[in-house]
Amino acid sequence: MRYLVDDTHYREGGPILFYAGNEGDIYSFYDNSGFMTETIAQETGGMVVFGEHRYFGVSYPFPPEEAFTPENSVYLTVEQAMMDYATLVTTFRKENAMEDRACIVFGGSYGGMLAAWLRFKHPSGF
Questions:
Q1: Which of 1, 6, 7, 42 makes a 20 to 30 Å CA pair with 15?
Q2: Starting from the edge strand earliest in sequence, which strands make up the sheet with 103-106, in order?
Q3: C-alpha torsion 95→101→102→106, nearest 10
Q4: At residue 44, does pLDDT exceed 80?
C-alpha cells in the first residue's frame, strides 16, 4: 500500500492528519488538498499522511493484470479498505513514536464516507 507523508508544518506533539484515499491515484488527491496540507496542517502542526486505496494508483494486492478477475476482486471491499487504513495508521504511529497523538481522518466523497465509517468502527481511534 502506497502512502505519502508531508511533515512540512509538523510541530512536536501535533496530530496525525490522515487522508483516507478513494478511487484514484493518491497523488491526484494530494495535489488537490491544499486546505488540509497547508491550512489545517499549519494551524495544528499536524503530520499529514495520505493513504492510497487498495486497487487504485499502484496499490494492487495482485499484479494489475490479475487484480480485477472475479476471484481477486472479492478483496475490494469497504471493510478491507478500512482495515488497511487502521493498520497503516497504527504502524505509522509505532514507527514514528506517535502512539499518543490524535489522528484526525479526512476524505472527500467516498473517502469522506470511509473517514466517517472509520470513526464508527474505531470510536476511540486506532
A1: 1
A2: 3-6, 47-51, 16-20, 103-106
A3: -40
A4: yes
